[in-house]
Design brief:
255 residues; alpha/beta; 8-stranded mixed sheet; 36% helix
């Protein structure tokens, strides 16, 4: 992996060249909470799929995650601040404009990036996040508490236990993740959502109980469409073949 300084915070990333002829349409991938670039995008074959489609693929480890710097102040994880990490990475790589794809928390960050820097976002692809971008404040605060108990065996709430075990599986810094949950809970207002002009795809599993309706969110964005991922929950939708096929079709057809 490579790394760079995003306003003093070390951010790790990969930069994978397109296979065959490069379309000249790079894409940046922003992963979800407690994950990292490898778990979210490499292991699910996204990087390989997009590179084989002729796209340069950039994927970062969000601050507090993976091989990026760990921070313990919740204020360091504001969604706009995390969006600036992605924007500065594009600057670092001299990429003027990119397709931006995020999953779950990464979709929230991607939406904040599209709002703050519309000129940098060719299109916006949000997976695992629907109307809860507007109605709701991200993952339940209890997940932060789940990161701080001595053992997952102490947890009885299924969602808390799921995220704690996932964080352990990915080798995450639990203290940093607790700060991230507490700091990255920003929603966007309906007025702000209506200002997102990039062509947008919102992809959510039909069994996802975390994201909220993709159709309700798509109805608020001027140039958006929803993609249902049949029979998939929040965890399984990300790497689903229907998801990958829908994204590739969207990228081929978007303006």
């Amino acid at each position: 992996m490579q790394s760079f300084s995003s306003d003093g915070v070390r951010i790790a990333f990969i930069d994978v060249a397109a296979e065959g002829e490069d379309r000249g349409e790079p894409i940046i991938l922003i992963h979800g909470f407690a994950s990292n670039h490898a778990v979210n995008w490499v292991n699910t074959l996204w990087v390989k799929t997009l590179a084989r489609a002729g796209r340069r693929v950039i994927a970062l480890d969000n601050r507090g995650h993976g091989q990026s710097e760990k921070l313990y102040d919740p204020a360091a994880y504001d969604s706009f601040i995390m969006a600036e990490d992605a924007r500065r990475l594009l600057d670092h790589l001299d990429i003027a404009r990119a397709d931006v794809m995020g999953y779950s928390m990464g979709a929230r960050i991607s939406a904040h990036l599209a709002l703050a820097h519309p000129d940098r976002v060719r299109s916006l692809l949000m997976g695992g996040l629907g109307i809860h971008l507007v109605e709701g404040v991200g993952l339940p605060m209890g997940i932060a508490d789940a990161m701080e108990v001595a053992s997952a065996d102490e947890l009885t709430d299924p969602l808390q236990r799921m995220f704690r075990l996932f964080a352990e599986q990915t080798g995450s810094d639990l203290k940093a993740l607790a700060a991230c949950i507490r700091g990255s809970r920003q929603t966007l207002t309906r007025v702000e959502i209506e200002r997102i002009m990039a062509p947008t795809l919102i992809s959510v599993g039909t069994k996802d109980e975390i994201a909220g309706s993709p159709h309700e969110l798509a109805a608020l964005i001027p140039d958006a469409q929803a993609l249902d991922i049949p029979g998939r929950d929040h965890n399984l939708a990300v790497g689903d073949k229907t998801h990958r096929a829908g994204v590739l079709q969207f990228l081929d057809e978007r303006a």
